[in-house]
Amino acid sequence: MKLTKDTKILIIGLGVMGGSYAAALTRAGYRVRCITKIQADIDYATARGMIEYGTTEIDPGLIGGADLIVFAIYPGAFVEWAEKYGHLIRPGTLVTDVTGVKSDIVPRVQALLPCGVEFIAAHPMAGREKSGVEFSDPAVFHGANYIVTPTEKNTEEAIDLCCELGRVLGFYRISILTPAEHDRMIAFLSQLTHCIAVSLMNAESAGGLEKYTGDSFRDLTRIAKINDEMWSELFLRNRDALLSEMDAFEKEFHALRDMIANGEREKIREKMRRATAKRTLFDKPVI
Q: What is the average per-residue pLDDT within 4-30?
């Protein structure tokens, strides 16, 4: 299968990520249809030219007629969908996703889909703290990273096509990791950072501090405006990796606390210098 302008693309789930995929692919000249739960989301996307067609029904013809299906729903909902409706996907169809955990999901979905249907998982490392199609924006992909997570069941053709999808969407860097490597990485880069932001906001007990804050606090806690339904599921589905990273962070935080308590300024400065050097590597490229 090749990704061409004749490829029939179906997106399952029209939230902020599904909507961003739809808008980017439509803008690139692809035919995009969707199945999602809320008619108002379809109306919103149709009125803005993000999709060609959408429905809230499980339409066997629409599912069976798709060449590429993108699942932009929560991990547990993805597994349930595959259990109930996976048989409607015709052999030869390529399936991918946007879910933020892989080891707990990929083998299960691959086992549930019919013979001849290939599921190649991917994770767009981009998004917003707000949910809903009205907050979708394909611009979030520019300068962002896109990770493909194949298993031994995936073909080179499927991996190449999934990478090509990332390029069409506008991602800057495309990487390939195993599901386990992905989950270890995401525990640190994404899940731990959300845990820190949530904990920091809940540590604030004085009240009224929003009248005095500066941008550093706003930047650090932006992701505390969190989709609790999705992120609680992600935390628990990647529990072991996340707990390991939380323990490592706690150890590092206590080391800094001890330096401050003991008045060890040079050690504090050295820790800050190392952090500055590391953080520079994470700046988004100017494109």
A: 96
